Amino acid sequence: MRLLNSLGFLIKAPIIVLVLFVINVLTWSGTWWVVWPALGIGIAWLFALLRVLRAIVVLGGLAGLVAYFNRR
User: Fold this and answer.
1) Nearest alpha carbon to residue 37 among 52, 50, 53, 19
2) For residues 2-20, b (16+ Cβ closer than 10 Å) or e, as one string?
3) Which secondary structure element, helix H or strand E, spans residue 72, and what is its range?
4) Sign (positive or negative) of CA dihedral 64, 47, 16, 31
């Protein structure tokens, strides 16, 4: 379940940052406040990416083991 949530977050996070960027541009007050939420979301996005990559590596390893034992 965490893996599916991470996959969804990898798609949703850039959209959220884009919406915040548009809001920042439309309500311009002289500062780029969108940088701080983007930084936090970016860090969370990186952890989600690492979780997904770890699952891909594990599944690849399991598929390799199955292929190895299938040949024997």
Assistant:
1) 19
2) eeeebeebeeebeeebeeb
3) none
4) negative
Give the domain ranges of the chain: 2-71
* 40-60: pLDDT as tens digits: 999 999 999 999 999 999 999
Cβ-based neighbour number of residue 51 at 10 Å: 17
Q: For tokens 């699952």, what's the residue?
A: 55
What pLDDT, on a 0 to 100 scale, did the predictor assign at position 25?
96
CA 3 vs CA 40, 49, 52: distances in Å = 20, 10, 6
Residue type, 71: R
